[in-house]
Amino acid sequence: MDKLDAALNFNREALNLRAQRQEVLASNIAHADTPNYKARDIDFSSRLTEAVERGRASQSMSMSVTSSRHIRAEAQAMPDQNLLYRVPNQSSIDGNTVEMDVERINFADNALRYESNLTVIGAKIKTLLSAVQQ
Amino acid sequence: MPYPSNSMNIFNVAGSAMTAQSQRMNVTASNLANAESVAGPDGQPYRAKQVVFEVAGSGRSDVGGVKVASIREDTSPAKMVYDPKNPHANPQGYVAMPNVNVVEEMTNMISASRSYQANVEVLNTAKTLMVKTLTVGQ
Fold first, then answer.
1. What pLDDT band is residue A70 in, cutting at 50, 70 and 90?
2. Does A101 touch chain B if contact means CB atoms closer than 8 Å?
3. Residues B72, A70: Cα–Cα separation, whole Å
4. What is the DSSP letter of A80?
5. Which residues, at least 6 apart from B71, have a Cβ–Cβ distance to it below 8 Å?
């Protein structure tokens, strides 16, 4: 990993995870009326630590190769182990665990953090650019 | 990365939820409009209908859009109203009216409308974030 890449690595991974979480929360809100739907979320800090320390490659599986003529194949790991289930405060009778207030707050919070992350990345890029142009 | 972080997917998820909710609204409208329909094309009183939602999973991930699994007919018995002058009245003078519960349908409609609004908001937020992402570093 070169220095330019390393400078932005942390923020890139954080932004990537924020986008993923946004998608999961959007899905929760979309399924507010689906019977037996269980609200999902990701553990942001542990996922970020994992992505920064071991890279995204640690989250995918690859086949072991014993000969140079083997085809290298990579598969994405099952997503379920990373998506956790939310524990509802008030469960509903149709088995749905989406609590609209919780999801909306999390969604707004995540959107704000995504934006602040974007701002930080923008500032960082400007700093690097001005260093390059000196 | 466990699943493709295709942020455009939010649009699909929220969009499908909006389609599903508007279909629910459509069914509610049909139920309310036909609350007094004594006879349908088959000569039987109108029966209330309800939509059933389910996850439209892509198989790879649990995060997916909403799809309308089925539209079910309410199996509760028809309301019997005493009206001997009605041409559809039975020999005892009772008319079988649709089993539409108007109060239930109204709450259903409000719920669908609120869910629809929530998804519009999700869509707007996602759009704002995408636009901001496109201008990063400028």
1. confident
2. no
3. 53
4. G
5. B27, B49, B50, B51, B52
Closest chain A residue to the Cα of B13, Cα to Cα: A27
**ipTM score assigned to the predicted complex:** 0.79
Q: Do B2 and A79 touch (CB under 8 A)?
A: yes
Q: Rounded distance, CA B51 to CA B74, Å? A: 10
Could you report the per-residue pLDDT of B84-97, keeping only the tens digit for each?
998 888 999 999 99
Residue B34 CA, distance from chain mean position: 16
Six-digit token pair at A113? 């953090």
- Report the predicted TM-score, pTM, of the whole model to 2 decimal places: 0.81
- C-beta contacts of A48-52 below 8 A and 24+ residues apart: A48/A13, A48/A14, A48/A17, A51/A13, A51/A16, A51/A17, A52/A9, A52/A10, A52/A13
The CA distance from B98 to B95, in Å, is 10
CA distance A10 to A16: 10
- Per-residue tokens: B110: 């409000």
Question: Which pairs count as long-range contacts for A105-113, CB under 8 Å and 24+ apart, including other chains?
Answer: A106/A25, A106/A41, A107/A22, A107/A25, A107/A26, A107/A29, A107/B122, A107/B125, A108/B125, A110/A18, A110/A21, A110/A22, A110/A25, A111/A22, A111/B125, A111/B128, A111/B129, A113/A18
- Chains A and B form CB pairs within 8 A to the count of 106
Phi and psi, residue B76, nearest 5°:
-65, 155
